[in-house]
Structure formats: C-alpha cells, structure tokens
Write a structure and sequence with these properties.
Blueprint (H helix, E strand, L loop, with lengths): L3 H23 L27 E3 L3 E4 L2 E15 L4 E17 L5 E3 L4 E4 L5 E2 L6 H4 L8 E3 L5 E9 L7 E5 L9 E5 L7
Amino acid sequence: MWNNTLIRRWCLAAFTILVVIYIAGCSNPSAKSTSNEQSGSETGQETPQTSGKEHKLGDTVVVDKLRYKVSSASTQKKIGNDSDNKTTDQQFIVLQVTIANTGTAAQLVDPSLFKLKDGQAREFEPMFDGDMYVNQGNIFFLQDVNPDSPREGNIVFEVPADATQLKLFVQSGIGFEGNHIGTIDLGTIAGK
C-alpha cells in the first residue's frame, strides 16, 4: 500500500519534471518563429542577429507587430534649447523615428527597443535623459503605442566622434517579445 510520504515524493518528482520540460520548451530557440523576412531573426544572445536584410533612412521596417521608420538622422554637439541643453565633446546622433503598432494591444516604447552599432562593432544605447532635450517636453520613451495610432519622436545616442558606418537595430518588443530584429543603415551621417 502507498503511504503519504511516497505519494508526496512521486508528486514532487512529477512536478519537477514538468517544470523542467516547460523551462526547456520556453528557452528553445528553434521554437521561436522567424518566418517574416523583414522581421529579422531571433536574438538568443545580447548582440542582435538579423536576417541580413538592411533598410535605409525613410524605409518602413516591419519587425513583427511593430513598424519603424527613421525619417531623418543628424549629428549635433548640443541638444536642447538655449535655456536647457546638454553638450558633448563627442557627438550626439539624433534620429526622428515613427513607430506604428499593428497588433491588438498597446506596446511600450522603451529604450531597449533601440541599439546603435558602428563599423568598429561598438554598441550604444539611447540616452534616456536625452528624451527631454530632443522632444521639447513631449516624452517619447515609456509611452504606449496603441494599435493603429503611430507615435513620432526623437531619440538620441551619444557616440565617439570617430563613430562611422552606423546601423540602428530595432526590436519587436521588450524582453521575450524582442526576438525579432530589424536593421536600418544610417549611411554616412556621423564622423563629419
């Protein structure tokens, strides 16, 4: 006859096996979809991996349910206005970006959706505090993009003065939702 201790051990063992199977299934890279050519490929690592398709300024980049368009890119030494500004000895890269959401739920515009990489394989994150300087009081980051309601704003990166061959990587979402990457070649805007 089965006693309570033996039953508990079997239940615990079965539960542990189910948890291990669930975790292995969630972390299996081959289970993620990469079918859309324009959506890029899964990251699986911290460095973005794309399908190889690069877009140019002005192109609409489809990354799963998000659509990105970089309308303009410029280099600056000072961002902000005359009374409230920030300067650098390096260079600021300011990008005018539009994000559209074709999904059914709101998506958060987070700095982690964007990464800039130069020809020397250096990676740069957007300046979170730069948002207030380049958007004149209209906050871009940490705002929702509702379905079929595009959001436009500027993002800024501070990069070394010698940074050239810049490419912007954009993700399909935050965290586990960010498994698709799109690439936008910014051309020769930097190093002027």
